[in-house]
Amino acid sequence: MSQLPIRSMTGFARLTGVAPGNTTFVVTLKSVNHRYLDLQFYLPNGMDALEIQWRKTIKEHVVRGHIEVRLSVQRESAPPAPQYNSAVVKAYIEAFRAASSEHKLRGVQPDLNSALRLPGVWSMEAPRAEEAEQSQIELAAAAALQPAMESLNTMRAQEGHALAEELHRILSRLQEYVDELSSLRAGMQQAQTERLDQKMRELLGDTFNLDRDRILQEAALLAERSDIEEELARLRAHIDQFRRLLYQGGEVGKKLDFMLQEMTREANTTLSKTGSIAARSLRITELGLAMKSEIEKAREQVQNLE
User: According to the model, what pLDDT value does residue 262 have?
Assistant: First the structure.
């Protein structure tokens, strides 16, 4: 089967780049299932403006899914040297001497080790990036989002192709079950008549032959009520429509899920109509349950389609 124009909502992409000033950055995209398009950004401080631009770009490439967008920046620079604040130490010494004079303490000198351990004496703050450097990093990271999105959608398309192949196999099995049910349908009216005939003989005994025509009418009515031709016809139509939607591409996940809900309804109706046909009820029940199982498998797969 050729590549289908359909995508999964599961994907991952990572792109590493270098901005002017020998600054390395990494753009990471992670996509999982979600009913709608839900974007969550994790950006470095001071780069919040990128979110607005990136939201617009991502919406042009993705229809549904929860997507985490992360940007990390690593500047290759020497670690900052500790900065000595002489004003704090000077204030400590002056306060020490004032206290010594006030309390008439002689020969007592301020402790330099204690002074150097005071809060605010040392500063290890790294120098902040210049505005021009920050702008260059943002431009480089913004340019990297496009290829990162293409990589993400490549993975999502590969996952979608695998899901579509599995869904086609499920559809084939469903078609086989519908065809077998259709072949069993031909003998259902006779089975209903035989069942009713047996019950009435048990109840009426010798008077049974007097009401033969009435019994045939009741048997025909029961056969009509238990006829599943309409359900089978709708199941065939749903299967055909499901296949067309698979090849249609785009945002088909919700539509396919709706089709599977309709298939489940028809399978349930088929089981309820045919449960009393003793001669064939076991096989019909097996087929109905098998259809419901395949439909549930398909729904699990469809939940991951965009």
Answer: 94
